[in-house]
């Protein structure tokens, strides 16, 4: 019964946020994250994010990322070289504009476990090729996944998820943005899970909320 009440509360929260997204400046992000193990050490990362100014239909940004990663140690330490394509459609003076960015990035992910807390640190360096500019940016991500109805993140487990990520420019102004996120997730099976939550993005002159729905798919390596 406690789990049912928790799920109902989560669905109510998401429904409320979705309704608000249609009536305010609250945006919505729909995200897919895939990780395909192509050998014992190598993995192929693929990711699509469809970001809207509202609940749907008013595209803010389409982001596609891919990359090749290498496990330094099994399941806990991974380095990755990747590429991102970003199509942005911001409003400038109430007029919709369009910008395209190509991005190369390098990252290091390390994972730890303390009791029920599954912790992830991600350090990412980005080289951003904009239409009329070049920028470099550093990002640090600290995330937590905490199982609720089991001690481990096993299939059919509900979990709480939270993260904070800070973005820093290599030039002035140094501070770019900070993201704070909280969500309820569900482990479908050992390779798939889904999350629904809320992220608040803080920029120098702006503070905006985003409803987020994310689907995570990990494909293990199998020998032919």
UniProtKB/TrEMBL annotation:
The record's InterPro entries line, in alphabetical order, gives: DUF2490
What residue stretch is flagged as signal peptide?
A: 1-21
* Sorted UniProt keywords: Signal
In terms of Pfam families, this protein maps to: DUF2490
Name by which UniProt lists this protein? DUF2490 domain-containing protein
Organism the protein comes from:
Chryseobacterium cheonjiense
């Amino acid at each position: 019964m406690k789990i049912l009440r928790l799920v109902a509360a989560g669905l109510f929260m998401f429904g409320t946020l979705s309704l608000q997204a249609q009536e305010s400046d609250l945006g919505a992000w729909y995200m897919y994250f895939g990780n395909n193990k192509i050998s014992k050490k190598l993995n192929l990362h693929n990711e699509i994010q469809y970001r809207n100014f509202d609940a749907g239909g008013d595209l803010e940004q389409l982001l596609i990322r891919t990359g090749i990663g290498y496990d330094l140690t099994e399941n806990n330490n991974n380095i990755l070289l990747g590429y991102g394509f970003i199509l942005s459609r911001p409003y400038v003076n109430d007029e919709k504009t369009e910008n395209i960015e190509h991005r190369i990035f390098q990252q290091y992910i390390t994972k730890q476990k303390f009791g029920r807390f599954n912790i992830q640190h991600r350090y990412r360096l980005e080289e951003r090729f904009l239409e009329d500019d070049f920028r470099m940016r550093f990002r640090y991500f600290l995330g937590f996944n905490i199982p609720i109805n089991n001690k481990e993140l096993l299939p059919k487990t509900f979990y709480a998820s939270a993260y904070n990520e800070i973005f820093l420019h290599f030039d002035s102004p140094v501070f770019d943005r900070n993201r704070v996120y909280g969500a309820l997730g569900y482990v479908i099976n050992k390779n798939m899970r889904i999350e629904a939550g809320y992220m608040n993005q803080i920029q120098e002159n702006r503070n905006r909320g985003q409803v987020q729905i994310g689907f995570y798919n990990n494909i293990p390596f199998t020998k032919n």
